[in-house]
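Shipment paperwork, digital attachment
Item: protein structure file
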Amino acid sequence: MNFTQQQSDVIAAMQMTLVKLKTSDPDTLKLLASDNTSALAGFDQEARRLQAIQALTDSIADAKAETVPANHPYHSRDPLTGLIQSQIEDNVIPELQATGQGNPVVWIPAGVRGILEHFHDKYPFQTATAASRIQIPNTCKIALLGDWGADNIHAERLGKLAIAKGADYVIHLGDIYYSGTEGECRTFLRNWPLKNPDGTPVRGRSLALNGNHEMYSLGRPYFTIVLPAFGQEASYFTLYNDNWQFQGLDTAYQPFSISGGNDDVRLKVQYDWLTKSIVENPDKRNIFLTHNQPVSAHIPEFEAAQHLMNEVRILLEDCGGLSIYGWFFGHEHRCTIYDDNARNPDALFRARLIGNGSIAHHPQEEVLAEKDDSQASTTPFLKVNSRALDEDHEVAVSTFALLTLDGPNIDVQYIDEDDRLFYQETWAASQKLW
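Attachment content:
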């Protein structure tokens, strides 16, 4: 995929579709009626049109409000916008030379396809069995790739580095861009670094968590294409050995939730799985792996994380005071080592953000955690990866984490795409948090 879409082009395509819907263009309404499997199937033509207009109007407003660095490819965090981006990538860009960028014959179907996909139901949440509790050697290497699912040079470099460094297991922390469609998931698998000689992923040692971009497509390609290719039965799992448990968790199926709460009771099986794993193995240190962040140095992301943090506090109570040793996560396209010191009220675990796995962005500039209007601070940090790849300081470096397990110790290296070491630390099972 090219990943060269600009925000203005995507919004223009959405607006063209909106005009056609508002004017009841016959061809557009025919496209809207072409799918009888979405939630729109139960509506008559006029109700479908109004539902589509409202959804598209809301998404255009959200897309316009998103801040995008100048000259950077656009990827939206609005689900419908992301779906339309995928349709543009798959169907419009290959035809631009033949039809012209402003030709509605090309752009309008992409917008309608995105709308139809948007109104489908989420793919059923899958339940893990004992097969998803996977024993790993006491000595091995695990590569963690965060927000890596883009078909670009940054992702390619990190994937090759992970294998060159001897990774025995490779885990994706979620986000296949733009919206986890079937084509994007198949490209993700073709690019996967841990492969057999025939080019297929190494099953059992390749694992993928769910991300918010996978859920733009309601999780269907992720659950039906990616997980079977990896031999992975559910979007959550446990890797364990004599000293450690890596708890891979789905925080995207229901955003920023492990249990689903009252919003989606299907996730309770994941919460029960996790508490059982922790309580029945009190001698093992637990490291969480998720897509969404439990903490953040930035106000909007910090606020979004509070629901997940509240769940974690309840989880620790339900586990009788047993603790979380560390947590790796993505979602924010940054690389941050958070402050584990006792002065940090959110320091319930070692928190590490590695969401800069492929998406080009401006280098980080922050030197302190942000404060809200009351001067309350977001999560303090020790170090951020502020490196740039170019002299103009336009493109930030991408990074992955390599965990080298050696009995009760883990050497953690944060390695940039040009093979420079950003940060290194040792986690010891005998250590307390502070």
